[in-house]
Amino acid sequence: MPTEPIGRFLAVLNPEQRKAVGAKPRQEQERLAAAWERELEADDELDTLDELSPPAAEAEAARRVLDRGID
């Protein structure tokens, strides 16, 4: 399991999303990974989901970041 933010972010994406984000410049990948981490920290609903399934919470946070058009 990757330990750095970009690697962790990419790991929770589906293959299509991973390819699209992986093709972006490093700075954009860093920005998306930071937005993902903020989403995980800030959303109380994700805290509850994280208690049940940490991978599901991480995937939901990634979906939200990409859906907001931060890409």
Number of separate strands: 0
Overall pLDDT metric: 87
Biggest sheet, in brief? none
Topology order in helix (H) and strand (E) letters: HHHHH
Overall radius of gyration = 11 Å
* Structural class based on helices, strands and sheet pairing: mainly alpha
Structural domain count: 1
For the record, give the distance between the C-alpha atoms at the N and C termini, rounded to a whole number. 23 Å
In helices, the fraction of residues equals over 70%
Q: Which regions are unreliable across 5 or more consecutive residues at pLDDT < 50? A: none
| Form type | globular
Give a quick set of tags describing it.
single chain, about 70 residues, mainly alpha, globular
Overview of this protein structure:
- By secondary structure, this protein is mainly α.
- The protein contains 5 helices and no strands.
- It has one domain (5-69).
- It has helices spanning 5-12, 15-22, 26-42, 44-52, 54-67.
- The radius of gyration is 11 Å and the shape is globular.
- The N and C termini lie far apart (23 Å).
